[in-house]
Amino acid sequence: MPISVVMPALEMAQETGKLISWLKKEGEAVAKGEPLLEIETDKAVMEIESPGDGLLAGIVVQAGAEVPVGRTIAWIVQPGEAPPHDEVEQASGRKKSAVEAPQPSAPAGARQKTTTAKMSPKARRLAAERGVDVTQIRGSGPDGEILTADILAAAESQSVTSVSESPSAVSRLMAERTAQSWTTVPHFYLVRDVETSELNESRQRLSSELEKTRRVKLTHTDLLVALVSRVLVKHPLMNASWTRDRVRANGDVNVAIAVAVNDGVVAPVLHHADKLPLADIAVRRQELVERARGGTLRPQDLAGGTFTISNLGMLEVDAFSAIITPPQAAILAVGRIADRVVAIDGQPAVRSMMTLTLSSDHRVVDGAKAAQFLKDVAQAITAPAALFD
User: Is 220 in the active site?
Assistant: First the structure.
């Protein structure tokens, strides 16, 4: 039986999706789970996997078209099988109503030469839009890949086109989501200062080993993901979600980490973080950050988060309050680690400290339960050796 390939919904409140490219040709064999096409979202260009085994047939949407989510764009059929004729005709007729987005021509005198450098479809399209000569660009990505950031930088330096004053798509999406969260989710905040001497020592002790064995740099965020995810197991309400008019328990602990990218912030997810060894968390976090900044996050990288950590310590922020990402129940904002004068047994002393700010959804959890969770997180940070040894 033919399997319908539909335009997926990858973002909250998404109505349409843009097809960047087919990764398989008409009639070519494809396996379930194999990359089939690339879709552009406001965050990145993402690979979409095949929903089944068979042959790609009945393609009715070509690269560059923007199509309503849920609409059939092709079929997966078995050898000797044909896609539904009526549906192909109907979908083909609807193609004309899709908002076509043909590649704009480069300005006169700015025709591009061919290049052998790797380049994402989004970067290639942006280069055409901005009239950038990609043969003159040295990519900053892996193996010299030309990234979207490289195109934007080249466009600005060449003054090929003026920078639009209108907000970018990601900025608009962020504005919509934060406004929705701020106006519909009853936030409350708890703040706690935590000593980090033992956490710093654990990072220093474990970092050199991981760099040798796994070639990954251990960060404080890695340690926090490991600690917080294990504390979440003991506090299921902090890992729950608000859906419609009730609280929904989440069986898995999937920790999202906020990552700054060129156009805003994305939050890729470390799935089953409570079950991952620290080394695996560090490797996975590094992979997700590289994908986020390279614009190559996949749908599964952003899906399923149950709790978010936002760490601005590396930007020397002392403390801040973060806005919850619905339908999650909470987000932990982490400030920088710095020496402070604190009272120890009634006497002033210098200690390494950081400030944690927990934002919680009052529909899911009350102040007492959130306070107990934050207390347990603070205790885990002050005595992490039991987990990491």
Answer: no
Helix axes 220-234, 197-213, angle to 10 degrees: 110
CA distance 134 to 161: 15
Q: What does DSSP say about strands 330-334 and 307-311: parallel, antiparallel, or unpaired? A: parallel
The verdict on whether 366 is a catalytic residue reads yes
Give the CA distances from residue 332 to residues 84, 167, 205, 342, 343, in Å, rounded to whole numbers and listed in that order.
50, 27, 25, 23, 25
Report the chain's terminal Cα–Cα distance, integer Å: 53
pTM: 0.63
Question: Left if phi > 0, otherwise alpha if psi is -120 to 50, otherwise beta: which for 332?
Answer: beta
Bridge partners, 310 (sequence order)? 333
What are the pLDDT digits (tens) for 183-237?
A: 889 999 999 999 999 999 999 988 888 888 888 889 999 999 999 999 999 999 9
Cβ pair 318, 338 in contact under 8 A: yes
Q: How far apart are CA 333 and CA 194, in angstroms?
A: 13
Catalytic residue, from 235, 301, 366, 376: name it: 366
The one catalytic residue in 133, 187, 272, 362 is 362
Distance between CA atoms of residues 188 and 134, nearest Å: 49
